Amino acid sequence: MDSTFHPFLNKYLAIWGKSSLQELKELISEDYRAREISGKEIIDFGFNESIEGWEQGFRFVVENGAEWELNKLSIIQLNKREVLAIIFAALVINGERLDNGNLFFQTFRREINNDWKLVRSYIEAGALTDFVLNEWEENIF
């Protein structure tokens, strides 16, 4: 795996963790495409809708004094230029982790200038936090 990816992913998660929209925006490709599943609803969206969604999420975090709990579940090299990171994100409010979170399958691409950008996401919204985290730990082999 490219030696620059892990430091990039740590930076990406730190930016996410501090709810910095401006910094996060710089790490998302303008060609970004995503699909989110929430219950039975399927939503496909691109860069602009993504930024709107992050803005709403970050505003909620700030207004509610919440914190992000971000769990790197797996990292898989897809090809020479792309890496898939599986991340589970839950919110913690008043010291209590919420029962539901979102499972992100995020594909990052190393661009021609060697910068990494988020290019694709598949998101399972509303996954049960304890189930996802416990299942993941039990099935690692």
Please give the structural blueprint.
Layout: H1 5-17, H2 21-25, E1 28-38, E2 41-46, H3 47-63, E3 67-77, E4 82-93, E5 96-110, E6 116-128, H4 129-138
Task: Give structural notes.
This protein has helices at 5-17, 21-25, 47-63, 129-138, and strands spanning 28-38, 41-46, 67-77, 82-93, 96-110, 116-128. The protein has 141 residues and is of the alpha+beta class. The chain has one domain (5-138): Nuclear Transport Factor 2, Chain: A. It has a 6-stranded mixed sheet. It starts with a helix and ends with a helix. The model has no long low-confidence stretch (mean pLDDT 90).
Strand content: over 45%
Helix content: 25-40%
Mean pLDDT: 90
**CATH class, please?**
Alpha Beta
Q: How does the helix and strand content classify structurally?
A: alpha+beta
CATH topology: Nuclear Transport Factor 2, Chain: A
Cα-based radius of gyration, to the nearest Å = 15 Å
Largest sheet: 6 strands, mixed
Euclidean distance between termini CA atoms? 20 Å
Which of globular, elongated, flat, extended, rod-shaped describes the shape?
globular
Strand order of the largest sheet: 2-1-6-5-4-3
What is the string of helix and strand elements? HHEEHEEEEH
CATH architecture descriptor name: Roll
Which residues sit in consecutive blocks of at least 5 with pLDDT less than 50? none
What is the domain tally? 1
Give the key terms.
alpha+beta, Nuclear Transport Factor 2, Chain: A, six-stranded mixed sheet, 6 strands, Flavoprotein
Care to give the gist of this entry?
The chain is α+β, with helices and mostly antiparallel strands and 141 residues long.
